[in-house]
Amino acid sequence: MDRIHTFFEQEANKAFALNKHKHKNSDNNSDAMAVLTFIGVFAMVSILWIYGIVSYGFVATKLWAWFVVPVFHTTVTFGILQAAGLFMFVRFFVHEERMSATDPDETAQQKISKIILPIIVPWITLFFGWVLHFML
């Protein structure tokens, strides 16, 4: 999700810089538009960040129930919020930033995949976990 946050932040900075460059003597209308753009990007990033935390938390609870509980015969379970917190804790220590600086030759398809891929990865993981669970 940090890649998405960085991407939207860069795009907002570009839009703000373009807007500022076009209108050196900007009026209140263009300033308001820049502020609204920033607020919109911030809201979108916040929603996607929360989505990522909750979706990975949900997937973690399912994988725990399918693979850890039967092996160790434990009754210890946790909910989505505890799993989301555990996910954030682990990610804090092992997260690796792989997003490079904005590439001017990057296609629209590559930009879209940077946004879509983190959204669907938890569900792909859950699907393969589900298939493995039923194969056991």
State the shape: elongated
Helix fraction by DSSP (H/I, runs of at least 4): over 70%
Give the low-confidence spans: none
How much of the residues is beta strand, in percent?
under 5%
How would you describe this protein?
The chain has helices spanning 2-22, 28-72, 80-94, 108-135. It contains 4 helices and no strands. The longest helix is centred in the middle third of the chain and has 45 residues, at 28-72. α1 (2-22) packs antiparallel against α2 (28-72), α2 (28-72) packs across α3 (80-94) and α2 runs parallel beside α4 (108-135). It is mainly alpha-helical and 136 residues long.
Short description:
By secondary structure, this protein is mainly α. Helices cover 80% and strands 0% of the residues.
List the helices and strands and how they pair.
Blueprint: H1 2-22, H2 28-72, H3 80-94, H4 108-135
